Amino acid sequence: MMESQQEPKVTIPPLIPLEYSNRVMLKTILECGDDQIGLFGKTVVVGGWVKSSKEVKREPVAAALKPPMAAEAFPPSPGRKELSCVEVVQSRIPFFKKIIRVFRVSSDSYPGVREKFEPVPKPPPPPPSKFFLQINDGSSISSLMVVIDSAVVPVSAGHVLPTGTCILAQGVLEKSSSHGKQTIELKVEKILHIGTVEPDTYPLSRKRLPLDSLRDYPHIRPRTTTVASITRIRDTLDFAAHTFFHNHGFLHVQVPIITTIDSEGFSEKFQVTTSKKWGLGSGSDADVRHETVKAEQHIEARDKSKLGTGVKPEVKEDFFGRQSYLSVSGRLHLESYACALGNVYSFGPRFRAEKTGSIKQVAEMWVVEVEIAFSQLEDSMKCAEDCFKFLCKWILDHCPQDMKFVTKRIDKTIVHRLEYMMSISYERISYREAVDILRKVTDKTFETKLRWGVPLTAEHLSYLADDHYKRPVIIYDYPKAVKPFYVRLNDDGKTVAAFDMVVPKMGTVITGSQSEERLDMLSARMKEFDLSRDQYEWYQDLRKHGTVKHSGFRLGFDLMVLLMTGLTDVRDVVPFPRTHGKANN
């Protein structure tokens, strides 16, 4: 006896509406794979923005449009009586009467004759249409086909539903009637909301705007497939960074954005002030009564140059009572918590007032900063490498659809590069070794003349990572003159315990160092940098009261997003980029 074959069970994925907007994310419909068949017949509410639209008008019934035809056009059927001429004429009397009415002259031409005209009939309603909309709500690369039948769901004539229209609709999921890539579509039963758009002024009415043009519309560009994908990768990377440090026992500490210290000493800063002597304008602008915070490019105090209009603000009358700046780095503040809680990290924006045209630098960039108590330089280098590899793997594991899109549209080698950097060990060389390698290069001429004691340029670093080693390189033990004052001095008295991680096709992504825990050494370094002892008294206290060896690093978060997406300009991965002379929105 043959056993009956059982049909495979259909898995029905859950379609749980979002708790705070009572709609189903399109991702749950479009990315459930072979289980989509289990969704057929389900009633859902979806919302999104129209990516493309097509209207198909139905043709009227053909018979209604045909004129009456002569009897001769219809040959008599077998057994059917043939009509006489009189009968044919009688059957056409109503038709002749209509012709007479058309040619009847107005009653004004014949006095006394009163003509009664029939009212003009209203034009017939337009034939019903079907709207085929591709909508996307930002949760997925793919869009959902939404079908609206105007005979079932009335759509007013003004709602043409072009690209950019926002729609919220209720309908039934069905098997797609088209022969495209999608296997599922929504047949709309009720329209809950339509947000109209002005096609003539909507920036995305044209297809495939280049990224540099989209920078002029930072408030609209998230609706593009590319920027939406970048944003989802950025969000996943954000979560991955927190996950890594939480998994390794780090505490998240928020450090201030406004600071009174110069932690780097090499970067131009934004000064924060409420003083009106910094040139708030003339006329009505000068009479503004409320406090205004204005960031101005800060020139190093030792330069003795005057600021703004040549009138130095009275610092004591300012909001904070002393010169304050937007933070360039939070590592000094982070040290105070590391010296009490052990391992800590921060995540936030940092600011540099550099008028640079670099495609990898904007005025406001987000960074992850780490500080590890009871550790030395080697420990920070290992942590930085582990963190970098963890982030690469996390993106590949959790963003498969977005990475597939990035590979297709932006960089065909990006997935392979990330997998390669996850699986190999990174090269570690000292600054001196790097200089020796670069001096021996004969097949390439560097723009900047290389000598020991000067910073390595992006060109030098690119050669080491892209051409010489062809893998990430960690360069350590830099000359003390090119690193901040707080970096620990090595035993040779010439170099400091600092490192940079250089990645192929990207450059420096992570910088780190071991901090100087010896009070006398720190004081000497501060004197070399001409720093005020009073201003850094709190920082010196950490060496006076329970000093400990500690190290850390700084990871450029925006640069990591740039690396993961294969793009080259950081302005395309920062939601609202601020650059010299430009701060839209």
Automatic annotation (TrEMBL):
Gene Ontology annotations for the cellular component aspect, listed alphabetically: mitochondrion
GO molecular function, one term: ATP binding
Biological process terms in GO annotation: asparaginyl-tRNA aminoacylation
Assigned keywords, A-Z: Aminoacyl-tRNA synthetase, ATP-binding, Ligase, Nucleotide-binding, Protein biosynthesis
EC number(s) recorded for this UniProt protein: 6.1.1.22
CDD domains, per database record: EcAsnRS_like_N (cd04318)
Catalytic activity: tRNA(Asn) + L-asparagine + ATP = L-asparaginyl-tRNA(Asn) + AMP + diphosphate + H(+)
Matching InterPro entries: Aa-tRNA-synt_II, aa-tRNA-synth_II, aa-tRNA-synth_II/BPL/LPL, Asn-tRNA-ligase
Residue ranges of coiled coil: none
Boundaries of every Aminoacyl-transfer RNA synthetases class-II family profile domain copy: 232-575
NCBIfam families on file: asnS (TIGR00457), PRK03932.1 (NF003037)
Family, similarity comment: Belongs to the class-II aminoacyl-tRNA synthetase family.
Record-linked PANTHER family: ASPARAGINE--TRNA LIGASE, CYTOPLASMIC 2, ASPARTYL/LYSYL-TRNA SYNTHETASE
Name listed for the protein in its UniProt record: asparagine--tRNA ligase
Naturally occurring in which organism (per UniProt): Gossypium davidsonii
Taxonomic path: Eukaryota, Viridiplantae, Streptophyta, Embryophyta, Tracheophyta
